[in-house]
Design a protein that fits this description.
The protein is built from 18 helices and 6 strands. With 449 residues, it is mainly α. The protein folds into 3 domains: 117 residues, no CATH class; 83 residues; 201 residues, Intergrase catalytic core (hpI Integrase, Chain A, Orthogonal Bundle). Strand 1 and strand 2 form a beta hairpin. The longest helix has 30 residues. Keywords: DNA integration, DNA recombination, DNA-binding. This is Tyrosine-type recombinase/integrase. Belongs to the 'phage' integrase family. GO terms for molecular function: DNA binding.
């Protein structure tokens, strides 16, 4: 072993450790070999000293591998590397803090510029907080539903991509109100983006910053608040809003044409006000004692008990018969491979095709979305329940309707008096609300309802 020269080379008359950097990591490391002088001309002594150095250098390559993987996923490799330095410094590595960090900062400045190098040092020394590493903890705590989580991830991705393209450090501290405004101007306003789409992403970033404030990663003062774009009010020539409920005539035509699982979804949706996504996720265990327990939704209010309308009681019973408790009520709907695609998506698409076949599509010129879709069943249900109240129906109130629909009582009038303080409505009141809605008889004109 005295003559072993693995990982060693003579530099002048002294030995140094030399470790080859894999080709895939050379862009991250910035060199083809890592070299550390041992300050000895004795091969025997060099062999005794080299192994701890080799171990340290291989650990550096392991960290570089993580940086490369983060870069492949779209992360900022400089910030990822800075977090590795931050971890080493936090463990008391004085050499990394006092000697190696300044050297690495100089290399980064030569390759990426002063601003990036400054951000690297701030993150590594704990004086700045990178955005991307905080995202998983936020999403885990928020526990968003599939599509909402995907939208939140997209918001962070769009912001970080813009920061990268604009040479803005991907740190919490770098995104102040002025920077947020510039982001919105360049990414949304300048590109004439749809305000509703833009606001969805801005809302996601605002939620992220609120969480960071709560957890101490950001100072008070959310840069995304009051930054939303003004929505364009799109109306018909008659001044009606873009989205609307079905008419009674449309309901009759649709229910007569919809067959199988789609027909069952349409009928249950019309007589419960449930969203198609909620119905698609229902399991047999959710049906109990004449009610359907709607599970987790977009808000806390979305979790609720909806009485089963007498006109769909047989339908629900048939879909429960002979199934295990965990079986889906609408078992025909296939599971989706993409978490961002809801289980009810195939039924929603089939419903759109049905509307086209029935020539019921209602579009405003220049508007991408039609005025009616499956959600119009929900709008129709709420309108019918409201109309019943106006005609003197008893046993339930407008606040009961909000609970049945899964809307918050605390965001409307008398929020404390009728929303928070009394608690949930009695199931009898909810049942009265549901049963006040009746399917139209064929050929009954909407104006007579």
């Amino acid at each position: 072993m005295r003559h072993d020269k693995r990982f060693l080379e003579l530099h002048g008359n002294q030995y140094r450790v030399k470790v080859k950097v894999p080709a895939a990591l050379r862009e991250v490391v910035g060199k083809a070999h890592l070299k550390v002088p041992l300050h000895t001309d004795s091969l025997a002594k060099a062999n005794m000293l080299k192994w701890s150095v080799v171990s340290d250098l291989k650990e550096q390559l392991t960290k570089a591998q993580r940086v490369a993987e983060a870069k492949a996923k779209g992360g900022d490799p400089v910030i990822v590397e800075a977090m590795e330095w931050r971890e080493a410094i936090a463990k008391g590595d004085e050499v990394a803090d006092d000697i190696l960090l300044p050297e690495r900062a100089e290399e980064i400045e030569k390759r990426h510029g002063t601003e990036v190098a400054v951000a690297f040092v701030k993150v590594a020394s704990g004086r700045a907080t990178p955005i991307q590493p905080l995202e998983p903890a936020w999403l885990a705590e928020a526990n968003y539903a599939g599509r909402t989580e995907t939208s939140r991830k997209q918001a962070v991705r769009v912001l970080l991509e813009w920061c990268r393209a604009s040479s803005i450090p991907e740190t919490v501290e770098a995104v102040d109100r002025k920077t947020a405004g510039r982001f919105i101007s360049e990414v949304f306003i300048a590109k004439n983006a749809d305000p509703a789409t833009a606001n969805k992403l801005i809302t996601g970033l605002s939620a992220f910053w609120k969480w960071m404030e709560k957890r101490g990663h950001a100072v008070a003062g959310n840069p995304w608040e009051r930054q939303s774009l003004k929505l364009k009010k799109v109306k018909t020539e008659e001044g009606e809003e873009a989205k609307r409920p079905f008419t009674n005539d449309e309901i009759t035509k649709i229910l007569a044409a919809a067959k199988g699982v789609l027909g069952d979804l349409c009928r249950l949706g019309a007589l419960s006000g449930m969203r198609i996504g909620e119905m698609a996720e229902l399991r047999v265990r959710n049906v109990k004692e004449g009610t359907i327990r709607v599970g987790q939704g977009k808000t806390e209010a979305a979790t609720r008990d909806v009485p089963i309308h007498p006109d769909v009681a047989a339908l629900v019973a048939a879909r429960c018969e002979g199934k295990e408790a965990d079986a889906y009520l609408f078992h025909e709907l296939p599971d989706q491979q993409n978490a961002a695609r809801p289980r009810g998506a195939p039924a929603s698409q089939a419903f759109t095709r049905l509307l086209r076949e029935l020539k019921l599509e209602d579009r405003i010129p220049g508007r991408r979305q039609a005025r009616i879709d499956f959600h119009s069943f929900r709008r129709w249900f709420m309108r019918r329940a409201r109309n019943a109240l106006e005609k003197g129906a008893t046993g339930f109130t407008a606040w009961t309707l909000a609970e049945v629909a899964g809307h918050s009582n605390e965001s409307g009038p008398l929020a404390l008096t009728m929303g928070r303080y009394p608690g949930a409505s009695r199931i009898e009141a909810k049942r009265a609300c549901v049963e006040a809605v009746q399917l139209p008889k064929p050929k009954v004109d909407e104006t007579s309802s």
